[in-house]
Amino acid sequence: MVGTQKSGKPGDERRSWRRRLAGPWGVVIGVATLIGTAVTIYAVLNGSDPLSREEVRLEELRPPALATNCRPYDPGDDPRYRELTTADLKCEPLGKGPETVKFHLFTNQSDLDEFMRLQRSELERSHAGCTSTGFAYASPWVDRDGGIRGELLCADYSDDSRLVWSYADRLVTASAASSPGAVTRLHSWWQRRVKFGGGAPRVTARRHLETVLPPSFRRCRQMSLLAPAALAGVACESGDGIAVAGAELFASRKLLSDYLNFQADRSGIDNEGCGHSPLSYTSYGLPPTYKPALGHLLCRPENGVEWFEWTALNPRVYAYASRNDSNFQKLFEQWSESLSLIKGLGGSRS
């Protein structure tokens, strides 16, 4: 007969509980106790209530190199935001740039998308956009390896400057705010801390860009502010009346095409051909058919300055040049003869 019998020896029951705590359940209980203790200590030190389970998860998901000393906060009076987010933290930033950094956690992709849509709508209504950094309302952003991480929004309001970006794989969004007119410094902080993860553009990307530039791009230096979908950039001297020239290497041909399409849409430009109008957007290629297109050329005056922006699809290069004398025909000649000769286009053009 098989049965159980309690031992009358003192300490047997205590030893039994020690054996149970030494097993897998003991590890689970120990970890839970440590997390609970940490949350309690955090609450005491910060003078706030203990973090909820969702807030603890957001604390684990947020990049630690961006901010510290996070605490829960109300995302605003607008009930649309409170209904979408499941946890909200406000933190002290690390590094010179923003004055605050905030993080939001979502339970599903549709709620995150709606949150970003509301943000875009606010920016469009206020006509905000960080045009000084080459992008406006919204753009996909890539990390230093070229992987698309989420979407970046930029705003330069009268009372503050702000960047809002998403981490699509984590169901997390973040925002950084600073004083008005400081958007360039804010964007520079974002490039270092977020886009490049505290590092810099990969040397291989910068070297690849330098090898495909046309000969007229001389004495180039690394550019600190890039389009959100670019991997590396250079600012160059070109001479012969060219005031500004530069180029960026994009992560993919599609991101490159979408970027220049957005620039053209923002300017409200028709497809007339840059040889006929200083305000136009067209494809270019090898004669006589110009198909398939080697790239696209956008011509537009801005504040009395003639700007040319163009793409070279095969090497994934975006380039630009400008003249301050409003001499459109001279800039078009320079582009046709030398500026457009980016290596890797698939053939030489006459």
End-to-end distance = 100 Å
Helix content: 25-40%
Q: Which outline best applies?
A: elongated
Query: What's the arrangement of strands in the largest beta sheet?
Result: 1-2-3-7-6-5-4
- Biggest β-sheet description: 7 strands, antiparallel
Tell me, rounded to a whole number, the average pLDDT: 80
Low-confidence stretches: 1-22, 24-44, 131-136
Number of strands: 14
Kindly estimate the percentage of residues that lie in beta strands according to DSSP: 25-35%
Domains (count): 2
Structural class: alpha+beta
Number of H/I helices: 9
Order of helices and strands: HHHEHEEHEEEEHHEEEHEEEEH
Radius of gyration: 27 Å
What does the model show?
The chain is an alpha+beta fold and 350 residues long. It has 2 domains: 53-195, no CATH class; 203-339, Protein Transport Mog1p, Chain A (3-Layer(aba) Sandwich), CATH 3.40.1000. 33% of the residues lie in helices and 27% in strands. It is built from 9 helices and 14 strands. The strands form 2 sheets. A 7-stranded antiparallel β-sheet has the order 1-2-3-7-6-5-4, with helices on both faces. Strands 8-9-10-14-13-12-11 form a 7-stranded antiparallel β-sheet, sandwiched between helices. A hairpin with a 4-residue loop joins strand 5 and strand 6 (161-167). The radius of gyration is 27 Å and the shape is elongated. The chain starts with 11 loop residues before the first helix and ends in an 11-residue tail after the last helix. 36% of the residues are buried. The model is unreliable at 1-22, 24-44 and 131-136 (pLDDT under 50).
